[in-house]
Design brief:
heterodimer, A: alpha+beta, mini-chromosome maintenance (MCM) complex, domain 2, four-stranded antiparallel beta sheet, 4 helices, 8 strands, B: mainly alpha, globular, disordered C terminus
Amino acid sequence: MKQWLNRALLCLLAGLMLLAAVAGAEPEAGVDARETAQPEATQAPEDGPKPARGYVLVTTATQSGWLPLPEAGEVSYPIRQILPDGSEAENVIHLTPDGVYMEDSTCANHDCIQQGIVTLENRDERILSNMIICLPNQVTLQLFTPEELLEMAKGEKGQ
Amino acid sequence: MNSTARKVARFGMLTALALVLGWLDRAIPVTWFLSGAVPGIKLGLANTVLLYAVYLMDWRGCVLLMLAKVFLSGFMFGSMSAIIYSLSGGVLSLAVMLLVRYRPRLGALLIALMAAASDGMILMRNPHPRGQMLWCVVLIALACLAAFAAFVIIGRKPEYGVLGTSLAGAVAHNIGQILAASFMLRTPQLLYTYLPVLVGIGAVVGCLTGIVAQRVFRALRVVNFQKTGET
């Protein structure tokens, strides 16, 4: 009788451990599972429960802010500013679900338009990596993944 | 009297040349096909004039020429921010050139080491470069070899010292500009993504302008520095 009880308890323990192992391993099992699980655990940086594929840090001469990549469709944001030397400048940023590029600019050389699109795929191939720079208008765009953004936020909190 | 007249004439001529070459660089961008990948890239023709000035004039004249070039061309073609960028590049490159002038061989070696280090930095960040990055890495490796070749050549033929000065000046100009840019744009990331690239490209351009300058000096017969130093 005692033997049976022991065996049953052992089986139960083993079953529990197996369950725990499966449950513990599940979030790491697939990349897709982890990507969908993360935003709930660690608050999404921008509004909405599901993070965008990427976030664009826009820096102008005086201020900076974040723009999420749209889930579908394409958006253009005109950015008007007055530069420190008093002249007016306008840059049009174009966001697609994959990346970002400079659509139009009032600068003289239009280098920023020629720099083309930055996507999460071509970041490592580009010489400027994740950046688009308009030097005369002092506008920079940087594309980050949600994970990088969270790390940056943690780093700022740590400091 | 004669010598001051010569100085004034030389100064005026070099200033005019710097302005015209600066305009030419803007009007006919030889590197237009690269400007998408490497924004802000220029041949730096106007800076070659500074290179001649380093050998033709004393340091006060050089500083004056640099300031005249930066402010005049800034007011004529550029904006306030353009002046800041070219001023920081000009100051750093002139200071380095005036120093390296006396040790051109050391300058060339230093640039070769810097190009190698920046190539290593790029490869460390991105071990398997593709696309533009691959070309960039190859180009910087070539620049490193070229700078080392200049080091060897200057050791054998001292009249090629211009090469070392030109290399150091071009790289210093790029470093100065990127420092100003990362300060103005408040993006310190530029320093570790773009600086290695610019160091390598500075070495390439510096090598080219150095070869041109050496040919010009030979044509002008001003390679004999002692004679021109006294006038």
